[in-house]
Amino acid sequence: MLVYFVVSIFLTFMNPYYATRDLIFPLAFLYWFVLILSGSVAGWLCSIAYQRLWPTGPRWPMLAFSAAGAALAVTGFIILLESRFFMRPIPLNEIPRVYGLVLVISIALTILSELVDRAFVKDPAAAGEAAANPQAKFLERLPVRYRTAELWAIASEDHYCRVYTSLGSEMVLLRLSDAERELTGANGLRVHRSWWVARDGVADSKREDGRIKLVLKSGEDVPVSRSYQAAVREAGLAP
Fold this sequence. Notes:
five-stranded antiparallel beta sheet, 239 residues, alpha+beta
């Protein structure tokens, strides 16, 4: 959020394309902040869609797709703001030009965001090791602050998954079956139709009403389905 605030302040002062020439500073800042936030959400959704359609695809096409999608969303917001709030509708033949202008800023911000993300990787050797580690690779789906965390478990919640780590939990738009496939070779296993756990994330196990439950290091109880009990015992996670 701090990055959005700083970028919005910068654009308010720079006033590219004279977009906010008639607005006082607080309203101009709000204008840019809304556009930056909407573009970021759209770009994030586009990156998730790309990863679902092409899980092993290269990163730069994903960034280009995200920038284009973010620019499309921001252009829509500009059309709405101009017509509903400023009473100066944009002619249809001008919309492609507006999209092109927005795309320039979207590409610049996408590159800036990528450079900031890469700045968190200090050691190239460590980065190569992370790329070869399925768990570290999977954590790249999460915000930057989770990249150095330990992956403890993943729980399915409707069309999303909640990812439990040593630095907290985060929701991602992903099916558990897809997550399990991405974590092939990782030190973990499926224990329930709605749960995957990493062995290092399990602190204890217990029995309740004849059923096995695993206890994560974060304190959550993880149910073990009868069909997975043998695998859990074989992994040494329960007696």
